[in-house]
Request: fold
Amino acid sequence: MSHPVRNLRFGLFGAGPWAGQTHAPAIHAHGGADLVGVWARRPEAAAALAGAHETTAYSGDKGVDELLAACEAAAFALPPDVQAPLVIRAAAAGRHVLLDKPVATSVALARETAEAIERAGVASVVFCTLRFAPDTAAWLGEQTAAGGWFTAHARWLGALLGPDADTPDAPSPWRVEKGGLWDVGPHVLSVLIPLLGDVTEVSAVSGLGDTVHMALGHASGASSTATVGLSAPPEAAGASLELIGERGRAVLPRWNDPVIAYRAAVDELRVSIRSGVPHPCDARFGLRMTEILAEAESVLR
Reply:
C-alpha cells in the first residue's frame, strides 16, 4: 500500500459536469493533494478538463493503466456501473479510491467492488455529501452521540427530471433510467443508518414521476420514512431531515458548497491511508446502501 509523505497524487476518472464543478476543482486546490491527470471516455472531454486544471489528459483503455501508474489514489466521477469496474482495476493496481455514490446499481457488482478493495488492502471513501459537508457532518456526529431517537423523516426532491427542469446539461442517462431512488437515496441512507442503525426492513411505494416513498425499520428498533425523487416541480424541490426522540426534534442544517465537502472527503481518505483504519463511509458501507436500494426497487416491481 502506498503511504503519502506529502501530497497525495490523484488521478480523476470522469470529465462530466459533476467532475468539472466539484471533483477537479476540489482536488486541484487541495493543499494535500495533486491532480496528476484526468481520464474520460471522450478524449475531448478529458482534454478540456485537464487543460482547465493544468494537468494531463488520458483516454481509452491504455489511458486507464497509464493514469493508474501515475497516481497513488483514484477519484471517480462516472456513472455507477462504469465506475465499479474501474475501481476494481484501480484497487488491483494498489491505488486508494474515492468513489462517487452509488458504488454500483447491482448488488453483485457493488459486492465485487468492495471485495476487490478489501483484497488489495487499499483505503476507500464513498462521497456522500452530507457525511463530509462541515455543518451536516458535525450535526450528524452530535445527534448520533446523543441517541434516543424514536423516528426520522427525510425528504430529498429534485427537479432534474421534471417537465419544467431548467438545467444547462441534459441529465445523465443512468439518472433517467434509475431515478432519484438511486441518485439521492444514498444521501438519505448515509445519514439515517448512522443515526438509527442498519436497515432491517424495507417497504416502498411509487408516487408521481420517479418519486419513491420508503418506510424503513432499523436495528435500534426505530423507524424512518424517506421521500426521494428527481421529477418534482421546481417550487417543490429541496431536502430536509427531521429527527424525533427523547430530546424533542432535531433538524438537519443546510450544507455548504460541495467543493468544500469533497475536500473533506479527500482529507478523510488521507487519514484512512495513514492510519490503516477503514472509514465508516467506505466501499463496504456503499455495498450496504446498494443492497437496501435494490431491495426497495424490488418491492416497487
